[in-house]
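As a warm-up, study this chain.
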Amino acid sequence: MNTIKFGILSAVQGLTELLPISSSGHLILLGKLFEIDTSTLLLSVFHLGTTIAIIIFFRKKLFKNIFTKEKLNFYLKILIASIPTGIIGFLFQDIIEEKLRAEWIIAVSLILWGIVMILLERKTKGKKK
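Now compare it with the structure written out below.
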């Protein structure tokens, strides 16, 4: 039974990761429903799988002319942009896991940001006409 539950979680991760919605939020809520502990380690494994799949899919674009100044600059910017997030995650991991992973906070956040995105999309479509 756990294999089926993990398969469903994997499918949700794959479907939601590239959409402008929180894949982690959906995994945490679904994990609660399935009575599976969605620890930071488990979420990291899901995200690692997605990252590997994306790298494999875009390998020709990512690794074509990899040693050009433009590509190296691009990868350096990604690395530099990741450092603050890593530091914040490392320093505040306990607070994040204890306070921000409550089901009600995740649900409210998903709903609130969903409404914001719908409103922004409508506003943007209105300007294009």
